[in-house]
């Protein structure tokens, strides 16, 4: 298929191109990150009369936002029963109310700004695909109703198969995420926001006026800095490396042989399966997502994740054609609630992270909340999402595992063996010994070879090769690099060191 591992949304949308900054400057509010969180924040600030500056390392909407499922919903898997168990019913009601506000914000903004993004109303369902998950769905339905959500309960529905029980949340929406963010960015610019892409922030110096250094050496000085970057550029004393857990998820878009019921669906158990309908020029496209795993910790052939999703889509509606396949990275927190708010008490550095794969609603919420914090000093729902909440104590097992796993992965990566360079196939990557040191090699389809020092530039863990996307992924904190060493995403700030570039035959001779 064409455009391997480029999302359907990125294949079918024209993203706005902004200039790069390229010089030192100053602004009152600087937003780092051009996904849905950053662009929503810029739009909301512009609506309030503030003229923020936004910088994006790549292209607008070029990160996780452009690789999502396209669901904007307050149905986030099994979550409301967990919140009640950890923080009580009041917190669950606050979560439901805040996420409802996010869905309504998107709905209103699409209408107000006339954004052509194929927004459609639907019902979001969570279902039990195994008998062992029935109790969890029943408990989630009960918790959702208590939290004020208009939720229905259906027993033994006909779709999808197998399905023992499901609960549905009415009045949710789906859309084309890249077209939405592109339209929102245009509306923000029209109201005074200034946007730059290809401008990467690498360092933030704290103070009354923050100094943000970009990759090209230019410095932006700002009183307020919003980190809408999935993983914060500036950590401070917050130990985000122990509080944000990177996850990868895979997705496909298909043209189907048979019709299928409308709506958004996700199962309650494992392996996770999430799917929805997208309509493009009158044609129904089936979007199927799942096969999640910890970044860099997936053994075996990653292309099997796509094959498993294709088999599932074929059972749902029959696969006539796969039109796109891709993956995305997001982060979880110990208690599965995002961090949205100040980096510390009275700080004017803000963070939005840990969306747990529900960033279209939580990112919209975060953008609006942070705009309120900046302009008024406070906002609704601040306490629920604050980084200062007791998430480490409410979820001690998750917190302990999240803190220890990177250490284990670091040690394990240093002890793992290497493979031989001979027999390396085009499109394959391996961990080898090069001049006595552990290294990563990739051979492309033109027989060009790149050998890299695969020690992650964040905290020194050795990387693993992802053969589905031809990337080097860190099993500790989710740093990801292209096969040529270019940094793609995650907490690292520097690319990998290139040890050799040349032809495969120059290394091994004629085979």
Task: Set down the secondary structure blueprint.
Layout: H1 8-11, E1 25-32, H2 36-47, E2 53-55, E3 71-72, H3 80-87, H4 89-113, E4 120-128, H5 134-146, E5 151-155, E6 165-174, H6 177-190, E7 194-196, E8 201-205, E9 210-214, E10 219-227, E11 245-256, E12 264-267, E13 273-280, E14 283-294, H7 303-317, E15 319-332, E16 339-342, E17 349-353, H8 359-376, H9 382-385, H10 391-394, H11 396-415, E18 428-434, E19 437-443, E20 448-452, E21 464-466, E22 471-473, E23 480-482, E24 487-489, E25 498-503, H12 504-508
Parallel strand pairs: 1-2, 1-10, 2-7, 4-12, 10-17
Antiparallel strand pairs: 3-6, 4-6, 5-6, 8-9, 9-10, 11-14, 11-15, 12-13, 13-14, 16-17, 18-19, 19-20, 20-25, 21-22, 22-23, 23-24
Protein name: Glycine/D-amino acid oxidase
Domain Rieske: 424-510
Keywords: 2Fe-2S, Iron, Iron-sulfur, Metal-binding
């Amino acid at each position: 298929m064409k455009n391997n591992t480029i999302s359907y949304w990125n294949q079918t949308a024209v993203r706005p191109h902004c200039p790069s900054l390229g010089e030192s400057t100053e602004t009152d509010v600087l937003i780092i990150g051009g996904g849905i969180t950053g662009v929503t924040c810029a739009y909301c600030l512009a609506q309030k009369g503030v003229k923020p500056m936004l910088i994006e390392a790549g292209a607008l909407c070029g990160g996780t936002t452009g690789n999502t499922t396209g669901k904007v919903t307050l149905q986030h898997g099994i979550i409301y029963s967990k919140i009640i168990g950890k923080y009580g019913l009041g917190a669950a009601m606050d979560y439901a109310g805040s996420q409802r506000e996010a869905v309504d914000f998107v709905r209103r903004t699409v209408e107000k700004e006339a954004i052509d993004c194929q927004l459609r109303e639907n019902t979001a369902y969570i279902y039990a695909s195994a008998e062992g998950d029935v109790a969890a769905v029943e408990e989630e339905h009960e918790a959702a109703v208590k939290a004020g959500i208009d939720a229905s309960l259906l027993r033994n529905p006909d779709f999808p198969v197998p399905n023992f029980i499901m609960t549905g949340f009415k009045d949710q929406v789906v859309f084309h995420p890249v077209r939405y963010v592109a339209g929102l960015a245009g509306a923000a610019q029209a109201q005074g926001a200034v946007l730059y892409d290809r401008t990467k922030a690498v360092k933030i110096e704290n103070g009354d006026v923050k100094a943000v250094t970009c990759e090209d050496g230019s410095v932006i000085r700002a009183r307020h800095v919003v980190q809408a970057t999935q993983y914060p550029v500036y950590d401070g004393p917050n130990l985000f490396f122990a509080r944000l857990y990177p996850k990868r998820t895979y997705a496909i878009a298909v043209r189907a042989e048979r019709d299928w019921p409308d709506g958004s669906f996700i199962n309650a158990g494992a392996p996770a399966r999430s799917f929805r309908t997208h309509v493009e020029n009158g044609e129904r496209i089936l979007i199927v997502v799942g096969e999640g795993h910890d970044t860099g910790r997936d053994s075996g052939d990653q292309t099997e994740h796509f094959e498993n999703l294709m088999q599932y889509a074929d059972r749902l509606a029959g696969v006539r054609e796969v039109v796109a396949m891709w993956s995305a990275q997001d982060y979880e927190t110990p208690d599965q609630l995002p961090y949205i708010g100040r980096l510390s008490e009275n700080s004017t550095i803000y963070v939005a992270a840990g969306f747990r794969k529900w960033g279209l609603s939580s990112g919209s919420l975060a953008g609006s909340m942070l705009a309120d914090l900046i302009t008024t000093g406070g906002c609704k729902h601040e306490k629920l999402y604050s980084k200062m909440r007791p998430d480490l104590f409410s979820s001690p097992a998750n917190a302990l595992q999240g803190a220890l796993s990177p250490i284990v992965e670091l040690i394990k990566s240093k002890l793992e063996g290497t493979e031989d360079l001979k027999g390396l196939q085009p499109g394959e990557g391996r961990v080898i010994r090069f001049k006595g040191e552990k290294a990563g090699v990739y051979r492309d389809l033109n027989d060009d070879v790149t050998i890299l020092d695969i020690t992650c530039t964040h905290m020194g863990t050795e990387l693993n090769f992802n053969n589905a996307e031809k990337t080097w992924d860190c099993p500790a904190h989710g740093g990801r690099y292209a096969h040529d060493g270019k940094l793609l995403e995650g907490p690292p700030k520097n690319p990998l060191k290139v040890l050799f570039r040349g032809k495969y035959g120059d290394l091994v001779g004629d085979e």
